[in-house]
Write a structure and sequence with these properties.
Blueprint: H1 11-31, E1 34-35, E2 46-47, H2 51-57, H3 67-97, H4 104-111, H5 119-130, H6 137-144, H7 152-155, H8 157-182, H9 186-194, H10 199-210, H11 212-228, H12 231-235, H13 248-257, H14 262-294
Antiparallel strand pairs: 1-2
Helix pairs in contact: 1-14, 2-14, 3-8, 3-11, 8-11, 11-14, 13-14
């Protein structure tokens, strides 16, 4: 019997994906090897090798760690904290929404709201109408209670960014985990009730292992979303004070629009992609090891 070459139908889609994703990445790698400063038109664009990479990665004196490594650490810290919050709180919210109660459909719709709001728009709202110490809700409530409001954006920028990242992307985690919970057959849940399984055992020994694939997909995609998040930082902390709330994508933006250095920005973008792939690989391996325990 002649086999059908169904894979040929995938060729148009593969070509589109390759053009949209790989061509820009290849151009980024090419630009990262150039000396190209937009602010210096008198300097010709020429091949620069790996000097743009070495500019960020070099450590000439261990007593003076370059700012690049501080930015990498801040990116890792923000991403891990936001990913943990999104996963844990997202799972708990998904459990609450996985119940047939009055108004649950309205609650599901409302909790998905932040996911559909632009990052820059939500950042402006949080900065001006909520966290502002003079005109915002936070400042008004604090003064009403007799406290002196602290400028959280200036004094605790990392904590603010972690919170905003979690608020922005948690609906995605809730959506993925809720889909997993609702895909569990009713027969399994009914059998646990017959066997006298309590809520704790049913949740963490039955439901949680059965939706681990949904959780792993949510975490890996969420890792990508969190690493590339940029708009919230731009309109809230603007990377400050100083560089204390810089992340790698924001540093790429500053290299282009502040330093006007295309080569260094491209090199930093390539490093960001490499570190993201390493993080995804580590996360995938850890999830697979945990899944092997249940299998």
């Amino acid at each position: 019997m002649k086999k059908h070459n169904d894979w040929r139908f995938l060729i148009p889609g593969m070509i589109v994906v390759a053009v949209v994703t790989q061509v820009p990445f290849i151009l980024t790698l090419v630009y990262s090897t150039l000396r190209w400063n937009l602010a210096r038109p008198d300097l010709p664009v020429k091949f620069y090798g790996f000097k743009n990479y070495w500019y960020f990665l070099r450590i000439e004196d261990w007593s003076d760690i370059p700012v690049f490594y501080s930015i990498v650490w801040q990116t890792i810290l923000i991403t891990i904290c936001a990913l943990a919050l999104c996963t844990i709180v997202g799972f708990l919210l998904a459990l609450l929404l996985d119940n047939v109660i009055p108004g649950v459909n309205v609650a599901r719709t409302l909790i998905l709201g932040p996911f559909f709001v632009m990052s820059t728009a939500s950042g402006v709202i949080w900065k001006t109408t909520i966290l502002n110490t003079t005109f915002g809700w936070y400042g008004t409530i604090a003064k009403y209670l007799g406290f002196t409001p602290v400028d959280l954006i200036s004094y605790h920028p990392i904590a603010v960014i972690v919170f905003l990242f979690s608020w922005r992307w948690m609906p995605f985690f809730v959506l993925m985990m809720l889909a997993g919970l609702q895909s569990i057959p009713d027969e399994i849940l009914d059998s646990t009730k017959v066997d006298g399984v309590n809520w704790w055992q049913s949740t963490f020994l039955v439901k949680l292992p059965m939706i681990r694939k949904h959780i792993s997909v949510a975490m890996m995609l969420g890792l990508i979303f969190l690493v590339k998040e940029f708009g919230l930082i731009l309109v809230t902390t603007a990377g400050g004070p100083g560089t204390s709330s810089y992340t790698l994508p924001y540093a790429v933006y500053m290299q282009v629009f502040n330093a006007s250095n295309v080569g260094r920005a491209a090199a930093l973008a390539a490093i960001t992609v490499a570190l993201t792939l390493v993080g995804i690989n580590i996360l995938h391996r850890s999830i697979e090891k945990r899944s092997a325990i249940y299998d």
